[in-house]
Amino acid sequence: MQDLIYFHIISSLVYLAIIFLAKKGNLRISRFLYFITLNTGIITTASYIGQEGGVEFMLMYALALPFLTFSFKREKHYIFSLSLFSILFWILLYVTDFNLITDFKIDQNIASRTIYPISIVATLCLVTFQLIYFSYQNAQHFSNIHYNKDEALEASTAKSKFLSTMSHEIRTPLNAIIGLSHILGDNKPKQDQIENIEALNYSGKILLNLLNNVLDFSKMQSTKIELDEIPTDLSLATKQIKKIHENSCLKKGIEMNLFIDDDIPSVKLDIVRFNQVINNLVTNAIKFTDKGSVTLKIEKLHQTEKEITLKTEVTDTGIGIAKDKQKTIWEPFTQASSSTNRLYGGTGLGLPIVKNIINTMNSDVFIESDINKGSKFYFTLQLKIASTVALKKEKTKKSHNFDGKKLLIVEDNLINVMVGKQILEKVNFKVDVANDGLQAVHKIKENNYDIVLMDIQMPVMDGYTATKEIRKFNTNIPILALSASVFMEVKDKINECGMNGFIFKPFEPQDLLNQINETISKK
Questions:
Q1: Fold of 406-522
Q2: Which CATH class is domain 230-390?
Q3: Which region holds residue 54: left if phi is over 0, alpha if psi is between -120 and 50, else beta?
Q4: What is the pTM of this model?
Q5: What is the mean pLDDT of residues 140-147?
Q6: Are the beta carbons of 296 and 278 closer than 8 angstroms?
């Protein structure tokens, strides 16, 4: 019995040492020593007192303790190993008939009448304390989660509002640039002006692509991309891509090559998203290549009656990407090195967007690259084959003549009003203008219009409120939103307030006229 007393005196000194280590910041070592000392103390005491004393039940406290003192997320292996440690000692006590440490036992009457009740009460108190403390920790944890969730939602809402406003503020003048370039191109310009007009239109589209990259990245964080698959002639689409990028290659003195198999049929594909992928990859290839060539290659791997598998490659002879950087380039706002942004510019969003779009198309994009030898980005797509009838229907440019139909433009930007009027009057619309939502409400009360083009963000009264007011006295007139925002919450609000559809700014004139024609036809 004297040995047991000496053992507990030594254990007390060890506990003091553990406290000292913990205060010094050696938490992991101190926790391990504590568990070993606690378990050793319980089994040693249980061996001296015997089964009648019930001291072994305190191993229940030791068994549960790791769940309170270690992180379940980061230190799961410690929790399970230390809990198993306690279970193993408990089993060994029963297997050795409580002679694990010593076969000496104190008086069994004392053990059963005095020590057993103390052991049971102490175990119950300790386990109850654990349960209460564990419940408190859980409540605090879930409270933090709820608080963090609210903060995240507020931050997300603020971000969406900011991006929606910025989208509107940038897209509105951009709509004027692209619209005016179309109008200038349609007004029989002189031969020496055509190149300048094309450059203006191309610059607008490049700026739009940059804006779309930022907005697409924001959308991809919160929602899944929706694909709009239409019949597509890939040969024609890729030739247009080559034409867009040839000037950039000529300026740098590099070649732009295009290889596409001749026997690829028309396919069902979201050509806008596909072009976004190819443009991002080709733009990067040109940016990082100072000599040699950039090559876009599309080849057929397999074809059945209804489907075709295509492999697309973009290869360059540029600076290449180090092996250890080939995983990080897919992360947002990341480039291959710190000098890349300084020397070549860029947002670091192109490749993450490429990966997201290709993933949405049920594939993945891969890279092969060596420093100073160039890079190859490639992916395969399994696509449905489109009928030639559907392709012809898609490619047919519709001619419009609205024969004196009345249209109201509700827009506060005077340049956009000018652009819109010129596009619409060319197809024989009688165009009226309101510069805010309140003016629109009064005009619609006093006049009969065949359709309304309603801007969203305006002074005095916005487009949502104006539409709600109009729907109180006129439920039939078609109203199309002119929206510079691409966020789902804006689309939802457009539908909720009673509009019939929306057109994104900046728009292609042909897309605008097609949408107007379709909406009027449903009237």
A1: Rossmann fold (3.40.50)
A2: alpha beta
A3: left
A4: 0.52
A5: 78
A6: yes
